[in-house]
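Researcher: Go.
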Amino acid sequence: MYDIDSFVKTATRQFTDRQKPRALFEDSIKNLTQSKCISYYGIGGIGKTRLLSKLMQEAQTHAPNSLCISIDFEESYFRNIGEFLNTLKSQILKHEKMDFYGFDLAYAIYWARIQPGEIPFEKSNGPLQEGHILFDIIQYLEGIPYAQIIPKAINLMSKIPQQTKAMTWWNTTGKVLATQISVIHDIQALRDILLDLWVNDVTTHFQKQGKKIVFFFDSFESVDLNRLTRVKTLMYKFPSFPVLFIVGSQNKLNWESSDELIVDEHIVGELSAKDIRSFLE
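Model: Structure:
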């Protein structure tokens, strides 16, 4: 005999299970004092992407002064951490007017090392566009041996007359930073510097603005081991500024919480047909 009471009880329990991750997200974004990663995992097609999309919508209600950045790793491939950080940067700049001077400088030097003779145009997934002060540096440096890049750059910048915001940054910070980076010849070490400077640029800006930032990473199972290491490193890089990472994946992360990042994992289970209709409305 069909037990309708059992069905209703089960359906209600399963739908409540959908409410729990949403309630967890609401509490986390409202009371964010430390960087946190919430992972929603489950089999393909269970509704993780839809859940993340709904959480993005709800973020503006729970924390109006927040910026949500979304990356679907099934659609967004990156060969190295430089490309990944530049993709995140491009997403941020679609919604927020800010400067990435430190990251741009390091990426320009990094690019000169891995792609000699090429200018990192925006269209080729590089950080620079015409009119960007670092674009002028790279044009000027084309063909110059790496060992001479920083001295030539410093000489060029000293001859630019306009006292722009970029020039102020160069004179107070950039020149010293460029000199420090110039002694780093190892590509892996340069990638570590890219991470540090990207995080510094982001935290400096958002702390001044008093804004929260939420990253939504979907299809996380598509990230191979080498790239996963870099993405994970980035997520643990915000000890002094609370950032919320929302991950959708077929696999459980099994990461440890630390002083830098709290990790909370939640399995996304099946819904009944009725609950799916309710959830999608």
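Model: Confidence is low (pLDDT under 50) at residues 1-17, 122-127, 140-147.
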